[in-house]
Amino acid sequence: MSSEKEQVIGSAGNVQFELLKNSLTKSFQEHFTSYPEGLVRGKPGGFVCSQEYARHADELLHFQPRGDDVWIVTFPKCGTTWTQELVWMVMNGCDKEAGKQPLNIRSPFLEFPYLASTKMQGNSPQMTKMISVEMVEKMASPRVIKSHLPLYLLHPNLLDTSKVVYVVRNPKDVIVSFFYHHKLIKIHQFNGTLDEFAQYFMDDEVFYSPFFPHALEAWALRSHPNMLFLFYEDMKRDLKGEIERVAHFLGKTLSEQQMTALVEHLGFENFAKNESVNFEVGKDLGFMNTEGRFIRKGETGDWKNHFSAELNERVDKWIEKNLEGTDLKFVTELK
Ligand code: A3P
């Protein structure tokens, strides 16, 4: 047992962030080539992020929500962007003209400016300048704000103040999608195989880990009147039905014409082509690699094209262990 006191890099309320020691090992550094400072882990809760986030975690915890805000809170790769566009459109009368502005301006990503330190590769100056927390603070109401932070690292009054749409996706497809994300985004720059990435994911050593507590915290709050809990798979199965749920939750009514147009607008083919949401601009700005796309495949069950039988067994056991005693269930395939 070591008597050495760990260095606290930052804190948010009672959560203290310390260096995730494994993230400085040679093998980790060879796999994740953009984290020269390593990653941090919060105690309690185990939340994993960058040192830069840790230094600003308290500021983010105290970021003041407004009564007319709508927050999209998700674990990455669960359909955040899709839901942001859906919510923004419903909130803004399906105004496609105004929707041509980049989504990250219309619906800012709260902690984005604090994800990467200047030491992290791929942290282009344009990227950090695009949005700041001060800009989100000053934004005109009603704001549609995105965050990947678990609820306990957002303002304690968030749910009693603002409407929150939480979206989750089955973890098998999240692993595959996050793997490609780590290859695409330069601040992650993952070099290993999908199998290796899946193990880091299950060991809760990737950005925004751990997955299950993130989802279960929101799941436990799903009956709160200000919470709408969505599944990516339901959006795939019945987009119109899920838009209706969102509109009802937000107190908005869509005409039949608006609904038809919105279903079309949010369909994968159109979405992938839509420059205001597909982040292809990240390639010009230099924080995304040219190979790969943010709006990648958009399917449920893509894990079957990537998992070996052995990996699938490992993932199944991990899911089973983490969902034991809960009533949260995931759909991993659509008929
Ligand atoms: P894949 O990598 O499996 O394709 P997030 O926005 O949370 O980062 O999630 C990204 C995932 O949502 C990607 O998954 C992306 O393709 C998918 N996605 C984005 N828009 C979508 C849409 N209109 N329909 C279906 N899936 C979509």
TrEMBL record:
Q: Indicate what this protein is called per its UniProt record.
A: Sulfotransferase domain-containing protein
Keywords annotated in UniProt: Transferase
Keyword Nucleotidyltransferase attached: no
The record's comment on protein family reads: Belongs to the sulfotransferase 1 family.
Residue span(s) of domain Sulfotransferase: 68-326
Q: Which PANTHER family match?
A: SULFOTRANSFERASE SULT
List the molecular function annotations (GO) for this entry: sulfotransferase activity
InterPro entries from the xrefs?
A: P-loop_NTPase, Sulfotransferase_dom
